[in-house]
Amino acid sequence: MAQVEVQRPILEANDKIAAEHRRRFAAAGVKVLNLISSPGSGKTSLLEQTLRRLAGRLRVGVVEGDIQSTEDAQRVAACGVKAVQIETKGACHLDGSMLAGALGAFDLDQLDLLIVENVGNLVCPVEFDLGEDLKVAVLSVTEGDDKPSKYPQLFAEAGVLVVNKIDLLPYIDCDLERIHDSCRKLNPDQSVFDLSCKTGEGVDRWVDWLVDWTKA
Amino acid sequence: MAQVEVQRPILEANDKIAAEHRRRFAAAGVKVLNLISSPGSGKTSLLEQTLRRLAGRLRVGVVEGDIQSTEDAQRVAACGVKAVQIETKGACHLDGSMLAGALGAFDLDQLDLLIVENVGNLVCPVEFDLGEDLKVAVLSVTEGDDKPSKYPQLFAEAGVLVVNKIDLLPYIDCDLERIHDSCRKLNPDQSVFDLSCKTGEGVDRWVDWLVDWTKA
Question: Which sequence spans correspond to the domains of chain A?
Fold first, then answer.
């Protein structure tokens, strides 16, 4: 298809910027997460729950990607963590050059962990490497158990799967085991955390894992 | 941003194809809907509920857009309606040329209504005109009441807003009035239908409206 061909040079240029980011992150000793999900799966709620539990354990910075609005950065800042908002002004994903603009706001040497919350989109953010160490896919059970098979690239590439909103399972038709099975086929090495940002169930386990991973 | 400039020729080429579709639809006397939402907001469930109620009232065809899988077309076909699946193989939206490929499967003169279910994505599908008469935005209350302000283009352009999964309102933090207010500011002429594809609440009102609109 024409579009894929036209985008090739964009992706190649992006890969070069991402490689530069990766060198810079390694030199500073900072680990970097790229949080990817549909709109409304609860990435920002997960951040709020996570950041409160990381206080005193890790030095964290956050980059928020949104098409428009600074609401998410304000929610993160309310957790006592420095947050930089990127407004993409229509673009459906973050890319390396957008992230480069945000990185200047941080002293990377003073951070253990940088979390990038991408624009809500299961497709395009997966194609644009940001130089991160790990992609984390967030899926809400309300989106349905068919999503990994319908949007396989993210679920195949993500090293971690967070299944959110499990408090709603009694009220919906969603087979959690089908989600697990589909993702296991796409990526057998994926770490999986079922949790609820509303009730807090399962969040500690995810945060403990994140601390260990960051320090490793 | 570089990407927007590179995409300009793609969008212009697409607009020409869409204009051709629009002439063809008008000549055949078929009305065309473009259903757009996040992954998992319930587009296919809305189709199932709608198609069952349209039986005997309108002659309907459906085009299903997915990155991968034919699951949705099978669900639609089970409602007794002809469905053609477009697998985009990685592309995050349908465009005019993909739709052109699917249209050959229909005798448009024999249809009153063609419904196109786009790829689950709140951003890119909005930019690619398919020649439709109407964009219908579907938003699940589980995605949160901040989505219209964070993804304004769809909610500004959609002539109809369907707010789905209202049966879950008692279990989540979502202010339905905030959704309505945000959308009213973006598009004061939008028709709004709050409903639940699970319980059926509100679906008849939507379907009655759709029949009237198609016949108008």
Answer: 2-215
